[in-house]
């Protein structure tokens, strides 16, 4: 596997959603009507969507299958309801995961009174099928990995202060998304919405120029 750091800029994301309905989406990978055969996935990562929902806006009930859906709320509150019988409100600092298994349906809404911003990431499972399941992990501590065994992956949430260094996991593949802050990775300057797809690189560090928030996926080869 060739060594590589592939930086993708937030400004180059594909714009989707339905602004007339209060939904703005910025996609990092091919999604829906936007198709780029050279940007379908990175390892098991199929999507990394930046979503903004106005107060009262949302996604009506829709289906998923054979996908691990992990959501990180940045601002506001996300109301979730699904066919497993779960209903919850997800807040900043919480990680939500819906394992769609052989099939699940869910609704995602902003029932709050201010804009909701979140990042939603889709991963392909190691094996298709199975029963759907759902969980919310509240108040994820900095640096504590959140395991997604069905995809052979782990999410590291990091919140470095200005001048702090964050070690990049020494995995065969790493996907890094910047939520907040100005950061430097191997000489590249990264800001909110930027991402890096890292392959077979070891000993990397991220240096925070300002207080930041990062989502770092440790992925299988």
Strand-helix topology:
Layout: E1 4-8, E2 14-18, E3 23-27, E4 45-53, E5 58-64, E6 68-75, E7 78-82, E8 87-90, E9 95-99, E10 104-109, E11 116-123, E12 133-137, E13 146-148, E14 153-158, E15 165-167, E16 173-180, E17 183-185, E18 188-190, E19 195-199, E20 205-208, E21 213-219
Antiparallel strand pairs: 1-19, 2-3, 3-4, 4-11, 5-10, 6-9, 6-11, 7-8, 7-10, 9-12, 13-14, 14-21, 15-20, 16-19, 16-21, 17-18, 17-20
Give structural notes.
There is one protein chain. This protein is mainly beta. The chain has no helices and 21 strands. It has strands at residues 4-8, 14-18, 23-27, 45-53, 58-64, 68-75, 78-82, 87-90, 95-99, 104-109, 116-123, 133-137, 146-148, 153-158, 165-167, 173-180, 183-185, 188-190, 195-199, 205-208, 213-219. The chain has a seven-stranded antiparallel beta sheet, with no helix packed on it. A six-stranded antiparallel beta sheet has the order 1-19-16-21-14-13, with no helix packed on it. A hairpin with a 4-residue loop joins strand 2 and strand 3 (23-27). The radius of gyration is 17 Å and the shape is globular. The model has no long low-confidence stretch (mean pLDDT 96).
């Amino acid at each position: 596997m060739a060594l590589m750091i592939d930086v993708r800029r937030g400004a180059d994301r594909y714009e989707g959603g339905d602004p007339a309905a209060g939904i703005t989406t910025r996609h990092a990978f091919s999604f829906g009507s936007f198709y780029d055969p050279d940007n379908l996935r990175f390892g098991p990562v199929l999507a990394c969507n930046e979503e903004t929902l106005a107060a009262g806006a949302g996604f009506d009930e829709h289906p998923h299958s054979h996908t691990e859906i992990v959501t990180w709320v940045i601002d506001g509150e996300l109301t979730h309801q699904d066919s497993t019988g779960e209903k919850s409100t997800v807040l900043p600092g919480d990680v939500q995961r819906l394992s769609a298994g052989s099939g699940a349906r869910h609704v995602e809404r902003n029932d709050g009174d201010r804009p909701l911003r979140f990042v939603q990431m889709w991963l392909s499972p190691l094996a298709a099928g199975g029963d759907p399941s759902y969980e919310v992990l509240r108040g994820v501590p900095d640096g504590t990995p959140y395991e997604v065994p069905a995809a052979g992956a782990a999410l590291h949430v990091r919140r470095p202060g200005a001048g702090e260094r964050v070690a990049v996991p020494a995995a065969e593949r790493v996907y890094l998304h910047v939520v907040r802050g100005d950061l430097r990775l191997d000489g590249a300057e990264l800001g909110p919405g930027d991402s890096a797809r890292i392959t077979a690189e070891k000993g990397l560090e991220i240096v925070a120029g300002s207080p930041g928030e990062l989502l770092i996926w440790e992925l299988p080869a």
